[in-house]
Amino acid sequence: MRDFFLPISFASKFPVLAGITTRSAGNAKFPKKRREIARRLNIPYSRITTGEQVHKNSIAIVREKDLGREFPTTDGLITDLPNVPLAIFVADCPPIFLFHPQRKIVGLLHAGWRSTVANISSQAVEIMAESFGVKARNLLVVIGPHICKECYRVSWSPVAKSFTECFESFGREVLASIISDSPQASQEKFWSIDLAKANSYQLQRAGVLPENIEIIPTCTYDNKNFFSYRRDKTSAGRMMAIIQLNFS
Ligand SMILES: [Zn+2]
């Protein structure tokens, strides 16, 4: 592992570059840092394609005319074009990497809590099926470093309420693994939410095989090698999650 970048599993087996920068790569909010990251990874800076990231579930298909742009109101990107780095910027929210090895299609999602309850994961699987005719069972998915369930505590709030409503239909056991009350010394009750598991169950419902979903357990809040919005508040930097099909 190069210390400024954590590559994810399928990148070592297929001609695809995928991974996430660490704190030592600097704050990827800044174009200067993005340019530096691109240079270090040997990816074309001018073709880095992104979304505005508004915590919703819109996903854009990136075509030749879109290279280098930022799609408005978009939290997910999909492309079959090689040599086009898709990027999202995160600090606690899980980045989700999708890859179809046979058809060579990649996707990248920014799956914070709002996007998760808006079903961004299953939306991505559907779009891949509709636009490229690929089957969900052949998709490989990696859910990258994110704030873990223990650290992602909320008081009863729209967050806890939305997750309970969203995952009720998955049954009691799944629901309990995604959201559970967290014991506290104080009177106030808290709920813990597992964003990665939530997305994993949605992906499975959309037809992705459980053995094809990998969750990277690294917690961005606990591990100071990553930026964490919850830990560092407004001073938090952003990591850059990247996926790119390479020419084979
Ligand atoms: Zn944690």
Which helices and strands appear, and what pairs or packs with what?
Elements: E1 5-7, E2 16-21, H1 31-41, E3 50-51, E4 59-61, E5 70-71, E6 76-79, E7 86-90, E8 95-100, E9 105-110, H2 113-117, H3 120-132, E10 140-143, E11 153-155, H4 158-167, H5 172-178, E12 179-182, E13 190-193, H6 195-205, E14 213-215, H7 229-232, E15 239-245
Parallel strand pairs: 3-5, 4-6, 10-14
Antiparallel strand pairs: 1-2, 2-15, 6-9, 7-15, 8-9, 8-10, 11-13, 12-13
Helix pairs in contact: 3-6
Bound molecules: zinc ion (ZN).
Description of the structure:
This protein has helices at 31-41, 113-117, 120-132, 158-167, 172-178, 195-205, 229-232, and strands at residues 5-7, 16-21, 50-51, 59-61, 70-71, 76-79, 86-90, 95-100, 105-110, 140-143, 153-155, 179-182, 190-193, 213-215, 239-245. Helices cover 25% and strands 25% of the residues. Helix 3 (120-132) runs parallel beside helix 6 (195-205). With 248 residues, the protein is an alpha+beta fold. 44% of the residues are buried. It starts with a strand and ends with a strand. The chain has one domain (5-152, 194-245): 4-Layer Sandwich (CNF1/YfiH-like putative cysteine hydrolases). The strands form four sheets. Strands 4-6-9-8-10-14 form a six-stranded mixed β-sheet, covered by helices on one side. The protein is globular, with a radius of gyration of 17 Å. The chain has seven helices and 15 strands. Bound molecules: zinc ion. Zinc ion is lined by residues 148, 150-151, 219, 221-222.
